[in-house]
Design goal:
Elements lengths: L1 E7 L8 E4 L12 E4 L2 E4 L1 E5 L6 H17 L26 E8 L5 E8 L4 E9 L5 E7 L6 E2 L18 H7 L4 H12 L1 E4 L3 H15 L3 H13 L6 E6 L13 H10 L2 E11 L2 E9 L5 H19 L2 E5 L7 H12 L9 E5 L16 E6 L5 E5 L12 H6 L13 H4 L3
Parallel strand pairs: 5-16, 5-17, 11-15, 15-16
Antiparallel strand pairs: 1-2, 1-6, 3-4, 6-7, 7-8, 8-9, 9-10, 12-13, 13-14, 17-18
Helix pairs in contact: 2-3, 4-7, 5-7
Length: 424
């Protein structure tokens, strides 16, 4: 469960910006919150802002953080750290480290702080603390000036190998190459986090295959997904998910095996939607369609809805960029409400999304502490702030009217048409 994420010097973010999932003291929409450890957390958060303001970069920063944790052990000695993407519009930041910080509650209900700072060549600092009894205890501290990681009182295996390549994270090394169970549990926490760009067709195709693989052998989940599609007025009665046999793929004789493997992986599962056929107002038979024959919105609903229902079974965290792509605002609202409903979301799965859809800026859907904005300064730096930061705002105001009136800022500052044609 995410409590807070902070980032410094990554893409358009220069000085530290933080996104908090900690609820304020407000008493409206308590179903939008839940108690975890010693903190009341939000189930969802939404980020608004003009194009190129940095909404995507907030999500991309978390993606890079997670990517580095999951893949740093793939780096060989002297390999560059590709997640290092400093702010380039001010010379000072071009050589400064990127820093990611996270406060979260692990699957075993323990609160952790984890912080890393790194440049293109090496990890500068890496610090992990935890709070087993509401008291902060260091697990390990790693600095670039010391050849060995310093183990704190919170590290269970004090005999573990403490040396790690300069460009790798110790958490990743201990989980993957050393097999430390304590770090393995934290590694699994990050692996479960889902990050998807709904506007990216390749992302949606990959997510569709991921969902189909998860659902192919789980009839109860497949039935839930069919119900979701039906409830959302797609006229789909059910879905049929089947794993294709490799013999179904036909290849030119000279096609390299790697390409064959990639194609099979990308198209391993066949998904059919089943529609009723009517005669004189009565259902007389069922007609299957390939999923790619459905509308773009239905295909996205299958992918997003399938992922959401699966995460509700286990708990976790989902990030969606461009959430409203091809989905009706009422449908977006319905999916968000699934997260707020304790019956559909008993494990308190969290959702963070970026969107332009102002119809969702509604006090019947969100509290003020769930609404975030991005804006660029005149020097191109992204600032991230919450509706709660504004004086006088209450949970009963019209968030949409405030936003469209410019009271939250975070809107495009458009020049007049004459600016384009002024020289003619």
């Amino acid at each position: 469960m995410l409590i807070e994420f902070s980032v410094r010097n990554e893409k358009s973010i220069s000085v530290e910006q933080s996104l908090s999932m900690e609820a304020d003291s407000g008493t409206t929409h308590l179903d939008n919150t839940f108690q975890a450890y010693d903190t009341r957390l939000l189930k969802t958060a939404v980020i608004y802002g003009p194009n190129a303001s940095g909404k995507t970069n907030v999500i991309a920063a978390f993606y890079e953080f997670r990517h580095l944790i999951l893949n740093s052990t793939d780096l060989k000695k002297d390999d560059p750290i590709d997640s290092y993407k400093p702010f380039k519009l001010e010379k000072y930041f071009r050589t400064q480290p990127t820093c990611f910080k996270i406060t979260f509650i692990s699957d075993d209900k323990i609160k952790y702080d984890y912080e890393i700072a790194f440049n293109k060549k090496q990890v500068i600092t890496e610090i992990l603390n935890y709070y087993p009894h509401f008291e902060k205890i260091n697990v390990f501290t790693r600095t670039y000036t010391q050849p060995l990681v310093k183990l704190g009182a919170g590290f269970i295996d004090q005999q573990i190998k403490r040396k790690v390549l300069a460009n790798r994270l110790f958490l990743s090394e201990a989980a993957n190459n050393i097999g430390n169970e304590q770090m393995g549990e934290l590694y699994s926490y990050f692996k479960k986090i889902e990050i998807w760009n709904v506007m990216n067709n390749l992302d949606i195709h990959r997510l569709t295959q991921t969902v189909s693989e998860m659902y192919a052998n789980e009839p109860h989940l497949s039935q839930k997904l069919s119900h979701l599609l039906n409830v959302c007025d797609t006229k789909i009665a059910s879905t049929l998910i089947r794993e294709r046999d490799n013999s179904e793929f036909q290849w030119p004789h000279d096609l390299p095996e790697k390409i064959q493997h990639d194609i099979i992986t990308q198209h391993k599962y066949s998904v059919k939607t089943i529609h009723p056929v009517y005669e004189n107002g009565q259902v007389v038979e069922l007609q299957p369609f390939e999923l790619n024959e459905e509308s773009a919105g239905t295909q996205i609903l299958y992918a997003l809805g399938g992922l959401i229902l699966k995460q509700f079974e286990t708990g976790g965290l989902i990030w969606f960029d461009e959430f409203n792509n091809s989905l009706h605002p009422k449908l977006c609202r319905f999916l968000i409400r699934l997260f707020h409903n304790p019956k559909s979301n008993p494990k308190n799965t969290q959702l963070i999304l970026a969107t332009h859809e102002t119809a969702l800026l509604d006090n019947s859907l969100f509290r003020k502490d769930q609404i975030w904005f991005t804006e660029k300064t005149v020097t191109g730096q992204t600032e991230l702030f919450s509706a709660s930061d504004f004086e006088g705002i209450q949970d009963d105001v019209s968030f949409q009217k405030w936003y469209m009136a410019g009271k939250f800022d975070a809107q495009p500052k458009l020049k007049e048409i004459e600016f384009i044609y002024g020289d003619e």
